[in-house]
Specification:
Helices cover about 65% and strands about 0% of the residues. With about 55 residues, it is mostly helical.
């Protein structure tokens, strides 16, 4: 999980930066959703694999 406090930009830089365009925002959100889905699928796959091997030695 990302930390909210990892951005080291100066306040002046943040306040004078142009706002994000709708297209850029959509791109960022699509990437965030894709990343989250990839993590969730990997977690489910691992859980399924662990379930198959549970109780066998």
């Amino acid at each position: 999980m990302k930390s909210n406090y990892s951005n080291v930009a100066q306040l002046k830089e943040l306040m004078t930066a142009p706002p994000m365009t709708a297209a850029k925002h959509a791109e960022v959100m699509r990437k965030r959703i894709a990343d989250r889905r990839m993590v969730e699928e990997a977690r489910e796959l691992k859980k399924a694999e662990d379930g198959l091997h549970f109780g066998t030695r």
